[in-house]
Amino acid sequence: MADNGRMILALNPGGTSTKVGLFRETELIFEKNIRHMPDELAEFDSIFDQHDFRRNIILRILEEEGYSLTDLSAVVGRGGAFKPLESGTYEVNEALVEDIREGSTLQADHPSNLGALLARGIAKAAGIKPYIVDPVCVDEMIDEARLSGLPAIERTSLSHALNIRMVAYKAAQMLERELAELNMVVLHLGSGISVTAIRKGRMIDTSQANDGGPFSPQRVGALPTTGLVKLCLSGDYTWKEMKVMLLKRGGLMAYTGTDHVGEALKRAEEGDESCDIALRAMAYQITKEAGAMAAALAGKVDAVVVTGGIAHNRWMMNRLEQNLEYLGKIIIFPGEEELEALMRGVLRVLDSVEEVKVYR
């Protein structure tokens, strides 16, 4: 990409933080992770009421770092749980803003939905364009993947699409081929786990991190159906309690009392059998899901790509490499570089590598 000094402001709002990164082309100029105290956020009735509060902090940081809105070429925000969309980079338009404000999205009050609003507000003041890139609601699933076995419940696509697609692009570059030519199984291993089949550049199936796949540090993954129904109907738990159990205190946390793979491994090495079996079981379930996605690609896999925070853990990577070497080349990109992913999505559009998508 031409190094002509275009500057891109990337924003990633979370539940209790806002990550801000400023890039000159692909060079990171600065990155800040702003932590928001609970008492600060308690003043707001909803996520969207936090918009001005977070925007003002972003603008203050930009000024403190010696930059102004006139320096910017584009602003990009983390995409939220909107309606199902194709992968790619979208310009934030009025239709998207209205859907967010009206709550007509998959998760109406999700903090990542703020990304589009923050990008739009700052870009409008700067007289430039706002974007989102590969939101969690990327849905390119083939029809066969949508049927769950019960017509009343359809399988949906919610995944760590932003990081998944960035590492897929990086892997394609390493292989010296175009992503649109390749088949990959991509494993995003974080507090939630997404395992995705990419066929010729499209995410044809994914293990929805909240509803299926392997258990993760905090989430339960796929459960025995009748056992789950019995637990729900027992009267012992409210929906709120069940949701916490399934999405925040399940998986590794439920078996070991920690959601940190490194801590669980340390305990296992010290003789804690519950940690040992939980880690081996998680690796086993990840292996099975990766094999299932390889089967969805009819066994034609150019690479298995592993990313996310757990990819830093050497024990887990050794285990997965041993288990999955039969599929072929394994490429590991540790960590979650979402600000970089946002920047690269915008540059692909600015450099005419791909066309900007229109939200309708």
Structure report:
This protein is an alpha/beta fold. The chain folds into 2 domains: 7-139 and 343-358, Nucleotidyltransferase, domain 5 (2-Layer Sandwich), CATH 3.30.420; 161-334, ATPase, nucleotide binding domain (Nucleotidyltransferase, domain 5, 2-Layer Sandwich), CATH 3.30.420. It contains 13 helices and 14 strands. It has helices spanning 38-41, 51-64, 94-102, 114-126, 143-146, 161-174, 225-232, 239-247, 251-256, 261-269, 273-296, 314-324, 338-350, and strands spanning 7-13, 17-24, 27-35, 74-78, 89-91, 129-133, 147-150, 153-154, 183-189, 193-199, 202-206, 303-308, 330-334, 357-358. The strands form 3 sheets. Strands 3-2-1-4-6-5-14 form a 7-stranded mixed β-sheet, sandwiched between helices. Strands 11-10-9-12-13 form a 5-stranded mixed β-sheet, sandwiched between helices. A hairpin with a 2-residue loop joins strand 2 and strand 3. Helix 6 packs across helix 13 and helix 11 (273-296) packs across helix 12. The chain is globular. The relative contact order is 0.14. The model has no long low-confidence stretch (mean pLDDT 94).
Topology:
Blueprint: E1 7-13, E2 17-24, E3 27-35, H1 38-41, H2 51-64, E4 74-78, E5 89-91, H3 94-102, H4 114-126, E6 129-133, H5 143-146, E7 147-150, E8 153-154, H6 161-174, E9 183-189, E10 193-199, E11 202-206, H7 225-232, H8 239-247, H9 251-256, H10 261-269, H11 273-296, E12 303-308, H12 314-324, E13 330-334, H13 338-350, E14 357-358
Parallel strand pairs: 1-4, 4-6, 5-14, 9-12, 12-13
Antiparallel strand pairs: 1-2, 2-3, 5-6, 7-8, 9-10, 10-11
Helix pairs in contact: 2-4, 6-13, 10-11, 11-12
